[in-house]
Amino acid sequence: MASTVFTNSFVASYATKAVNTNSLKGICVPVLNCYSCPSALFSCPIGTLQHFSAMHVIPFYTLGLIGIVGTVLGRMPCGWICPFGFVQDLMYKIPSRKYRLPQIYTYVKYLVLLLLVFIIPFKTGEPWFSKLCPAGTLSAHIPWTVWDPVNPATGIHIVPDSASGMEFYVSLLILGIFLIWFVLSKRPFCRVACPMGALLSLFSRVSMVRLEVAPKCDGCAICETSCPMDLDVYKDIGSKDCILCLECTRCGHVRVMTPIGSTEGVR
After folding, report:
1. What's the whole-model pTM score?
2. Which residues contact 50 (CB under 8 A, 6 or more apart)?
3. Using CA atoms, how far apart are residues 226 and 248, in angstroms rounded to an integer?
4. Per-domain boundaries in the chain
5. Phi, then psi, of 28 in degrees rounded to 5
6. Per-residue pLDDT reduced to its tens digit, 62-79
């Protein structure tokens, strides 16, 4: 929660009534956090990748950042600082019948990454993932549309009339589907549709921070029931879907492996 507040702490937007464009926006955080959110301090790497793809330019800085973070931490940012992941964890706590997501669906996020982040923006010149992204709809499009502020410097409405057209209603539908899904299954967006998670997952097998099941594991299944990604930790150790939230270390049989050694039952 603290990271969610920090990455969205630009309160000056309520005075300027405009998207934050200060120098911090030149920095990407390695999670899905919409550039256009009224209070966003930093940029979203997925939005940046789409922007450069549409321009037919290779974004070396953004790709390098993702590569460094992935090599060191794997998908740990997904488990510790992602605002949309936090929303999913909260909504799953709502009492309801729960459904386990078939593992095969988790490969869809790679298709989302290829098509909506790279190929379609490259062909059309438009950031199509950002147009449909439920995280962006929730944290940016809806707040701006409801607020509908007028820039005091220009006297012009920040949100153009075209922003509430068909694309907006399609994005609302997508958001609504995911919000219901969040209540029924553990982190479905992270597992099925998040291109940032897809990118970081490519480094899961080589990251410096990894998990290991201790030889004395007695099959208590505490790690499995506590996993927000619905993984069978004993069988899926090192899985590309593991977000290294370390919830599984509560049982004491799962430990964190780092270049300087291991820590058992750290939480």
Report:
1. 0.90
2. 116, 117, 121, 127, 128, 129, 130
3. 6
4. 2-150+157-201, 210-264
5. -95, 140
6. 999 999 999 999 999 999
Q: Which two tokens stand for residue 90?
A: 């909260």
Distance CA 151, CA 67 (A): 38
Of 8, 27, 29, nearest in space to 19 by CA: 8
DSSP-derived 3-state class of residue 95: coil
Q: Tokens for 192?
A: 């099925």
d(CA 40, CA 140): 9
**100: which DSSP letter?**
P
The structure tokens listed for 163 are 């922003």
Kind of pairing between the strands at 261-264 and 254-258: antiparallel
Q: CB of 252 within 8 A of CB of 264?
A: yes
Q: Tens digit of pLDDT for each residue in 220-263?
A: 888 888 999 999 888 888 889 999 999 988 888 888 888 765 55
Integer Cα distance of 195 and 215 in angstroms: 34
Identify which of 122, 37, 148, 31 has the alpha carbon closest to the alpha carbon of residue 84. Answer: 31
